[in-house]
Amino acid sequence: MTCIDCGSSSFRLSRFRFSDLERLALLQYPVRCRSCRRRTFVGLPLALALYQARRSKRKESGVF
Ligand SMILES: [Zn+2]
């Protein structure tokens, strides 16, 4: 997946809003481009992968 604005492939999960429920019903989750901060939607499996990547990164930083 790449940003339609800047072409970056780096995203993070965006804060979930009430208005996003419609998208969630379509199995899409909001994410934000790390480069240009554009908000967009990705499929739930991809959002889950982002979430897990974030968790594993936190683990590597030695919190545990
Ligand atoms: Zn972008």
Which tags fit this structure?
64 residues; alpha+beta; 34% helix; binds zinc ion
- The coarse overall form would be globular
Number of strands: 3
Bound small-molecule species: zinc ion
C-alpha end-to-end distance: 31 Å
**Integer count of domains:** 1
One letter per element, helices H and strands E, the order comes to EHEEH
Q: For the report, how would you describe the main beta sheet? A: 3 strands, antiparallel
Rg, please?
13 Å
Notes on the protein architecture:
The chain has 64 residues and is an alpha+beta fold. It has one domain. It is built from 2 helices and 3 strands. A 3-stranded antiparallel β-sheet has the order 1-2-3. The longest helix is centred in the last third of the chain and has 17 residues. The radius of gyration is 13 Å and the shape is globular. The site of zinc ion (ZN) has 8 residues, from loops. Zinc ion binds next to loops.
Summarize this entry quickly.
The protein is of the alpha+beta class.
Q: Helices, strands, pairings?
A:
Blueprint: E1 11-13, H1 21-25, E2 28-33, E3 39-43, H2 44-60
Antiparallel strand pairs: 1-2, 2-3
This protein binds zinc ion (ZN).
